[in-house]
């Protein structure tokens, strides 16, 4: 049997990128430590710790986060300077105010899944780092706050400069590599859908995850060191176009399944031609001159004309051909945008430029309820440890409060933060012997900075390699921070065993309190989070059916795509559960897109069809409100005659773009809600069609 020690020895050899990251992180930390010593700052090891916390393998990510970390640190310091003097005479109220600040900042940070979230998260626990030690000595709060900000800023700036100047690892090439791989996956899935060979929803979920990850990576582009930073608008436009491929290709796959055996021969030939056209890019060959225009012309020629008596088969065929035209447009746009990025052109052709201006900022799923609950958990943890601290008069209680604030914030974005906090607690305990050896044996014998660097190098260069590996990053950072936290005792001239023991106990108590509170009132399972994501989508669809104003293009689509990506990992962890097994977030996305299109078209229709469409949307909204309130079930049977009535009345409308858009969306909505129905034509003598509608 292999022991843990043997497993550690058998780890793969150090790669060049891992070694480079470790050396750069150590150089930044030593530079920050030297500057802090030279300036005579009271806690120079805080600058060293900050440099390690800020360091990352990609220079653009380090730079973008640094901007928000600097702003967050300054905001947290300002909050401490404002609160501590005002409440200095009442430690209980002061600790409560500091806890509320942390909770509010954490709540705001969780409502932003971009690097901007660091601003508020740093503002939250920075006030803990500065404010809690000042509870017992508020007179020096300004000097203490200024020193902490200087130490933290030195660490941030040193890490940013070193990772940006010394062999920078740019975000741009990595992002473009991921972008190309995702585009190849999308083209492969498109060809499989066109040929009827698509196998499962795994590709859909992977595509959704990849696009969401690309969006997060793209937020670092404006701060990158490569030339790709000038291509930010084109990259984001390409991501937005690729996002539409998920519901679009799923819809095409469904329509082909519905029309199997009933598709005209010319339409089958069109599919084969389109498959070859998509494959020409996947194979790296040259695109046929005018191929996209020829495909569009053929689609227009084959599209059936909607008129009185049009049935569901014709409407579904028109839906399919319209989706195929959109597929051609999106693939052509992605090819053109990728060519402009490859050529390094910052300006886009007139046809593509509007794509970069139509982008919605509201692209991520946000859960205000969980953000609020996370803020409450942080407040509760801080209140518990502060009550113990004040009640016992514990001299190191402020350190425990700081650790509780930090760890309640660090892992709050996870469904269950407890495993992450527990891992950090275990490896913090494992760092105690190493920290004691450095603090009590090694460092007291050094009398110069070069010797200090030599003494720290073996341990921190080794840990830096493991920080660079995603699989070991959490464990290595816990060991590293445990050692650095203990070394900070030298700053205060209290590097003795009693102070070390007291400080270690305070760290452990703070982390353990955060763990306990998290387990009691914040941890949720993957299945619970998956149901919450599904209900959020259902609630948004229900709200869209009752919307009185126009639905912004792109906002719902991007949020639902993000939910699909978030759901994929949670559904895998949730295991086989009947309710979740029946869930199809991609189908919900298709429902929402068709509802949005019906809403937009309904406002442009002035004939008798508009009230029928409004009545249908009301029934669909009622169904999804029932789903979101946990009354699970299939769409009610009365929705079908409403759909028949809407199609019959729409077909009788004068021909217009809005009328055809409504028919196309109606056919898509019918397939999404009732995928097993046949193409029986609506009965014009049906009572439901002659019933007056006032809605």
Q: What report would you give on this structure?
A:
Helix content is 73%, strand content 0%. The chain is an all-alpha fold. Helix 2 (16-38) packs antiparallel against helix 19 (449-467), helix 4 packs antiparallel against helix 7 and helix 19 packs antiparallel against helix 20. Mean pLDDT is 81; it is low at 1-11 and 683-695.
Structure, briefly:
73% of the residues lie in helices and 0% in strands. It is built from 29 helices and no strands.
Provide tags for this entry.
695 residues, 73% helix, disordered N terminus, disordered C terminus, mainly alpha, single chain
Write the layout of secondary structure elements.
Layout: H1 4-9, H2 16-38, H3 44-54, H4 59-86, H5 91-110, H6 117-131, H7 141-165, H8 171-195, H9 202-218, H10 232-243, H11 245-258, H12 265-282, H13 291-302, H14 312-343, H15 353-357, H16 368-392, H17 397-410, H18 418-442, H19 449-467, H20 473-487, H21 497-521, H22 526-545, H23 555-574, H24 578-581, H25 585-604, H26 609-628, H27 639-651, H28 657-673, H29 687-690
Helix pairs in contact: 2-3, 2-7, 2-19, 3-7, 3-20, 4-5, 4-6, 4-7, 5-6, 5-16, 6-17, 8-9, 8-11, 8-12, 9-10, 9-23, 10-14, 11-14, 11-25, 12-13, 13-14, 14-28, 16-17, 16-21, 17-21, 18-20, 18-21, 19-20, 22-23, 22-25, 22-26, 23-25, 25-26, 25-28, 26-27, 27-28
